[in-house]
Request: fold
Amino acid sequence: MSVGDRDLMRLVLEEEGLKIKFWRINMKPGKPVFGLPGNPVSTHVTFELFVRPALRKMMGHDRLFRPIIPVTLGWEIRRQPGRPEYIRVKLEREGRNYTALPTNPKQGSAITMSLLDADGLLMAEEETVYVPKGSELPCVMLLGREE
Reply:
């Protein structure tokens, strides 16, 4: 599913009489949920944030979400405001602290190379425009084993 003209899934579901209660989430990359978006990075990020916790809940797990920890930026972020963004990052561990670096300078939703070596999803809030190097931001940890 997507939001473009070539997205036929929503039309098909509505023609079948299924009512869609909500259709998209205001975040980047990805807007649709469960009917996952078409771009691979959007699919991965929306799966991690929405589908995986729902599946864990259905399976009876107590810990639904991946851990979120503060990480130090190893570069400065400049971005367009308007919706939250999840930036794919490689984490370098120094003792108990982590420094985040982008997995790829291009973070578009069709750039699968941005998923390569991703240890976490750095969370930039909707209104964030600039974050200097050395600042801390929350990061969804993709590393490690969960209970």
